[in-house]
Amino acid sequence: MVVGARSAVFAPLARLGAIIIDEEHEGAYKAENNPRYDARLVARARCNLSGALLLYGSATPSLETFQRAEQGKILRVDLKSRVAGRPMPHVTMVDMRDELAKGNRSHFSTLLERELALVKETGEQAILFLNRRGLAAFMLCRDCGYLVRCPSCSVSLTLHRGGRLVCHHCSHLEPVPPNCPSCRSRNIIAVGMGTQKLEQDLEEHIGNYSVVRMDLDTTSGKEGHRKLLDRFRAGEADILVGTQMVAKGHDFPNVTLVGILSADAMLSTGDYRASERTFQLLTQAAGRAGRAGKPGRVVIQAYNVDDYSLQAVLTHDYAGFYRQEAAMRQKLWLPPFCHIGMVMLSAALPDMLEQAGRNAVDFLGKQAEAYNGLLVSECMPAPIPLLAGRHRMRILTRHAQTRALKEVLTALLDTLQKPLAVMDVDIVVDIDPGSMV
Ligand SMILES: [Zn+2]
Ligand SMILES: [Zn+2]
Question: Predicted confidence band at 221 (pLDDT cuts at 50, 70, 90)?
Answer without folding.
Answer: low
